[in-house]
Specification:
four-stranded antiparallel beta sheet; Jelly Rolls; 1 helix; mainly beta; single chain; DUF2917
């Protein structure tokens, strides 16, 4: 199943399971009920109760089971620019002449 990550609450009935085969990282937030989370690459399963969040930064399969009638949100991670774009932006900023720099006045004998 391909899950859409959203901050909108999603209901999961007691004993039902949601399997996300290609989870691309994000946060599972339990708003109500109790959730059992199994994530590929993690040694232990996690129980979430209302107010608890689990951030899974790595892609992989995630299985969420509701122990009781539950409400959850799947929150996408913040979008990050590729490192090359960030470095290019920084380099461009460094190439600009400094303006508005406040410092000691130099009359040529500095």
């Amino acid at each position: 199943m391909q899950a859409t990550l959203t901050q909108h609450p999603d209901k999961l009935a007691a004993n039902s399971v949601r399997s996300i085969d290609h989870f691309q990282g994000g946060t599972v937030h339990c708003l109500r009920g109790r959730l059992w989370i199994t994530a590929e690459g993690h040694a232990q399963d996690i129980w979430l109760t209302p107010g608890m969040r689990l951030t899974l930064p790595d892609p992989g399969k995630v299985v969420i089971q509701a122990d009781t009638d539950s409400t959850l949100s799947l929150i996408a991670p913040p979008q990050r620019r590729p490192l090359t774009v960030s470095l290019q932006h920084l380099w461009q900023r460094l190439q600009r002449p400094a303006t508005g720099v406040i410092g000691p006045r130099c009359d040529g004998a500095c």
